[in-house]
From TrEMBL, chains A, B:
Family membership: Belongs to the Casparian strip membrane proteins (CASP) family.
Subcellular location(s) per record: Cell membrane
Designated name of the protein: CASP-like protein
Location of region: Disordered: 1-20
Bilayer-crossing regions: 43-62, 74-99, 111-137, 157-178
Pfam families, per the entry: CASP_dom
Casparian strip membrane protein domain residues: 36-164
Subunit structure, as described in the record: Homodimer and heterodimers.
Keywords: Cell membrane, Membrane, Transmembrane, Transmembrane helix
Bilayer topology annotation: Multi-pass membrane protein
Species of the source: Salix brachista
GO CC aspect terms: plasma membrane
UniProt keyword Transmembrane present: yes
Coiled-coil region list: none
Amino acid sequence: MSSVSRPTVHPVEAPPYTDGPQNALIRVRMKDVQGMPGTRGSLFLRLTQFVFGLVSICVMGTTSDFRSVTAFCYLVSAVSVQILWSLSLAVVDIYALLVRRTLRKQIIFRLFTIGDGIISTLTFAAACASAGITVLIDNDLDKCSVNHCVRFQTATAMAYISCFAMMPSFLLNFWTLASQ
Amino acid sequence: MSSVSRPTVHPVEAPPYTDGPQNALIRVRMKDVQGMPGTRGSLFLRLTQFVFGLVSICVMGTTSDFRSVTAFCYLVSAVSVQILWSLSLAVVDIYALLVRRTLRKQIIFRLFTIGDGIISTLTFAAACASAGITVLIDNDLDKCSVNHCVRFQTATAMAYISCFAMMPSFLLNFWTLASQ
């Protein structure tokens, strides 16, 4: 009996755990993407945000009359918050790279996404408001002779670059959060 | 031979298609979320964007001197593009609701996400630039007596509301695109 049934009946292999391959897939996919927390790409982005934000504040600080314009004060405040945020996350990235610890947890992605979203929106708003005023002074009123137009424009441009460097971090974290 | 093997060997059911339950899950989850293309929530958001954008342009248009400020001209241009976009998508939503056709295709989500992202960023930038100038005129220079401060502020506020009504559409489409 057994000799007959053996050739026709093959043991059915137990199906693999459903979450096993998915997790492996996610792990592989997440490892490939530079820019996520704990990667060199992320560290590069955070340092870019920090450096350009710092330059923006320093250039704006060298003008004596930026305090008389609300938008410029707001720019300095928003970029200050942003560079503190970027510096903190750069330190976290350096720590993760040094001790080879992963930061791929949902709570971290959620925190970083919300933080990046709020802070980049604030910085972008400040940069746009400052850009509106520099264009008003330069083009519309033509009063660059009595104002530090070049410095205002440089500070605004640096804030824009800092803000644009924050966008990939936000979009990447948001994408990862949604695809988990 | 056959009578022996029958009781011990049970037919193994074919495993369900792997994409079947996932698709069903996505379909159920997507049906629940109002605000996606082709839903009443989406139509409400698009009409809100359109109405507030239109009010913003009309209010700004009633001022005689908005053309002398670049940021206000940019606001009118950006919001014009935005209301055309919102109106087009509102028409698409109405069509989808009337003929009960689904718009849940990846290419549609991708198109709407990119469009919403770019246009809401442009509108937000224009609103921020206008806000910076209205604050400059009102608070910093205190020249509201010779300018239409209230109308400028109203137009800017309407543009902000229109832009904020676009954010849920963008985030929802982006989230759906990423989770597919």
